[in-house]
User: What shape does this take?
Amino acid sequence: VPRTGEVVFDKVTFTYPGAEQPVLADISFTARRGTTTAIIGSTGAGKTTLISLIPRLHDATSGTVSVGGVDVREAQLESLWARIGLVPQRPYLFAGTVGSNLRYGREEATDEELWDALAIAQGEDFVRAMPETLDSPIAQGGTTVSGGQRQRLSIARALVRQPDVLIFDDSFSALDTATDARLRAALDREVTDATVIVVAQRVSSIVDADQILVMEDGRIVDRGTHSELLQTSPTYQEIVST
Ligand code: DUT
Ligand code: MG
Assistant: This one.
């Protein structure tokens, strides 16, 4: 399996088992290594479903999804997952410590690597302020940290794994706009090789993306850069103005 993390969707359709209507229809796009692809669209448009096909949380009903030139259905699941860092829409933390939560998926990471990931994820300050820093306990469900802190720990966990493909599902929504901006600037600076896919609600989180896919009812209705879409896409204009 080549190490390049290019993600390609080719005429992908997906229907949830037992459902009548497809949730994704005719989805085709290429997300290249070293670039950021943003996905925006109203609630229920199919964004989370779309990204869930990359690590095979679901399989496409028709069409193909490939990572690094290999159809995900033909890749070995363990090696596929090793190359994908997915920050879920509802981040979860395990009972344990800050450090054990960050190491989940890459047990051998050094403390220095954890701090580097936290610095990018804008979590360094609050973890340093905790009484036992990386050894601070996390209660079941992560109830000892705030929603925004949980989001940042979840982002740092994905970075620690150094994946070829980094997927953020609405991961910046619990952050204030200044923290969001600092985090994206740090990602741009420090994560240069990965294929980054960002699902966002807020347009400010994706203005710099190399390509933006606008989704509506399971379809990509428009695509382009922020400035292109401002001129060509009524759907995008509507999202921007709300
Ligand atoms: N859906 C199901 N079963 C599931 C998950 C979702 O039928 O297990 C439906 C709900 C919705 C559509 O699929 O009609 C798309 O859901 P998805 O969660 O992919 O939408 P989203 O774009 O991620 O919405 P949000 O912005 O609220 O996260
Ligand atoms: Mg979603």
